[in-house]
User: Fold Late embryogenesis abundant protein from Heracleum sosnowskyi.
Amino acid sequence: MNSTNPARPVTGYPAHPNPNGYSTGTAYPYAAAPPPNAGYYTQNPYYARADPQRAFIRRLFSIVISCIIISGTVLLIIWLILRPRVPEFRVDSLSVSNFNISSSLVSGNWDVQFIVRNPNKKITVKYDRIDADVFYKSEGLASTTLPPFSQGKRNETKVRATFAAIGAYVEDGVVRDVNAERGKGSVKFSVRLLARARFTAGAWGTRKRYVRVLCRDVPVGLTLTAGRGSMVGDARECRVVT
Assistant:
């Protein structure tokens, strides 16, 4: 009869856990040791190489902006010093002769005397070309070109313009309106000037600019039985735009 040793462990049953909390027969608390840390490589930062074309464009743009600012400042200073003013035009006299209008045709001669004044103290004005038109309301009647002239500082100049129309065509409504005004004793004509001028002050000068002049509704004494007449009233100021 076999005797049983009480100190011998019973086979087939798991061993008692180690009181220290570790698995029996192992020195590491995990089933397997973790893998060693992967090697850490320091990556050098990447610096983008500057695009020379973009850098050139930026420099060029900065130069252009600087030039515009400097030029604007210089022009502003010049303007503040010179204070340029537009010339003044007025109709001193206007006469009509050989005037006839009928059957949509108009004939006549207009003689206009202007007074042109340069109000500037430091600027002279040179007119290279002046185109002139005389019209009734919006209907053109005759045109001419005036010779060039110059004006000194604070100068007044008399300018004469003569117009001629021989059988110029006009609308039937113009004939009716003109004759209606003649029945009242006067007809209002308008004169328009387009001048190409240059303003200078010493070494400083502007490029050629257009001066637009409109002398509107200048009354001329004309009756149905008379073919001639002259301006009624005092001199008429004209509107000037540059």
